[in-house]
Amino acid sequence: MERLRFEAPKETCLWRYLTIDKAISFFSKKEFRFTRSDKFNDPMECASFFERMAIQSKIAEVHIEDIKKAQRRSFVSCFYACSNESAAMWRMYSDPSSIALRFNGKELINFFKQKSDHDKKLEKYRIFGKQVEYKGFEIKEGMKSFGFSSGDLSPNVFIKDKCFDYEKEYRVVIFSMNARKYFKEISINSWDELKFDIIFHPNMPAWQKDNIRALVQTFNVGKNCCNSDIMTKFNIHG
After folding, report:
1. If both were cysteines, with which of 37, 63, 105, 190 could 74 make a disulfide (CB 3.0 to 4.6 Å apart)?
2. Taking the model in full, what pTM does it have?
3. Number of Cβ within a 10 Å radius of residue 41
């Protein structure tokens, strides 16, 4: 069975929008956190076409348990895939004290490849990276929507209902049989392993920007802190 598979992002940049508490956690712990997928908002995470149809048809009990098992084995780290900064992502996932991390997509995926291949703590896991596909799950679409069966867990975690297509998500997934923990991590040994820019929220006041710069310095992150492109476009002062 294939252990590692990473597909190139469709966009040049991958973004992570972070509230200040999550930013502090990222800088202090030096790790990407992977959340078990049953902790996400979408109850159909990891569900196959067949399972979704069964639930719509109200013949669902066995399928709901199958979905829960799949969710407990899938740990996900999500990124927004877009060459441009997103006002919508700022509104949904942040507040004026927040930041965004802007990564070169290919370089970030190469980081995960290298870690997955050489970190002994990750040897026992299957780890995939792929752009999420957004589909309609109406019964009339039938099997033409899918090129695979429900027997393989890995494709299902990369497909979501089209009502979530605003997320433009690229996700990296760790598949594990250990369902006891809610999270898994991929560590960053040195900040030199990663290239990224730190973007201030468009409405962040100047004193908070100084605090972010001090935070970055405290943890020796050594990355460039930038004003938001949205702030520049609309002449927002901060």
Report:
1. 37
2. 0.86
3. 6
